[in-house]
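Researcher: Hi, I'm a grad student and pretty new to this. My advisor asked me to get structures for two proteins we've been looking at. I'm not sure of the right format, so I'll just paste the first sequence and hope you can take it from there.
Model: That works fine. Here's the first sequence with its structure tokens right after it:
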Amino acid sequence: MTQTPTFPDLAGASVFITGGGSGIGAALTEGFLQQGSRVAFVQRSDATDFCDEMEDKTGNRPLFLPCDVTDTAALREAIEAAAEEHDPIRVLVNNAANDQRHATLDVDEAFWDASLAINLTPYFFAAKAVIPGMQAMGGGAIVNMSSISYMMATCGYAPYVVSNAGINGLTRTLAREFGVDGIRVNSVMPGMVVTPRQLEKWLTPESIAAQLDRQCLKRTLTPEDIVGGVLFLASDASAAMTSQALVLDGGVVTTG
């Protein structure tokens, strides 16, 4: 992993990450471990080997809690277990998602519900679970992983695009409601990040070349490119920043 900036206030912080054992989530787990944070993460598949690898690389072992984030009760129990092991959650990173491609006319009600059940609903209920503890300690940071997909009018995965628009709406309303408690809520909006899953499922040399043509920075983005921005939003370095969307896409979307 490339060198990341150091944020001293994250040392010892209790961090909870959904989908923290693969792709962008794995890079985020490693990034927080390098800060000396106490990291807990959930995912469905076994992550024992990944935890061993992280302990070897960082000297800091994450707490892996097997969980399907679409099971709200199980997600709440995992957060409670992490808080019991590491103290109340100071940083929540909502990251788990599934950007499966499909044609709109092929989407039925069951697929729609299942898509939102992983891409949007857990974001709300994970936040709901950690907020009381953050209120009690006088503040905290929630970072919601979104996407530039809904800003680009992309097609081929409508429920996912809708979910990412909803994530940014959720970010803003939670930031407004709980700012009085010192809780900051921001979202991160990556562009096309090249992961093994993306390469296996749908990225082609042609699609990568087309994306690079749209980017200002002429290189592919990797999960490590997302880590610094998330650490910044989690740390006191961004103490005055809330209700914002941080775009990390190599310069595709123009804001301001």
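Researcher: Oh nice, that was easy. Here's the second one.
Model: And its structure:
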Amino acid sequence: MTERLTVEFTPAEGAVIRVLGVVERRGYVLRGLSMKEKADTASLVIDVEPREASRRVPVLAQQLARLVDVRSVSLAARDAGSLA
């Protein structure tokens, strides 16, 4: 099942790469990506799907929240039929 994470962060050098690197290294497939940026904040919306059923997206959200420049991470469940 694909799930959507919204990552609010400070737009700094390497911030997006750090987020996407954690997603990949923790065993998730990136299914969608969009980003909005303002002067002092940015929002990255990513749709992810675990490579294995044992992977839990809330754990990924906690790992992302620990990254430098990340302000918050929120999770919203999505079903496969609602992907754009």
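Researcher: Is there anything I should tell my advisor about the second?
Model: You could mention this: The chain has two helices and four strands.
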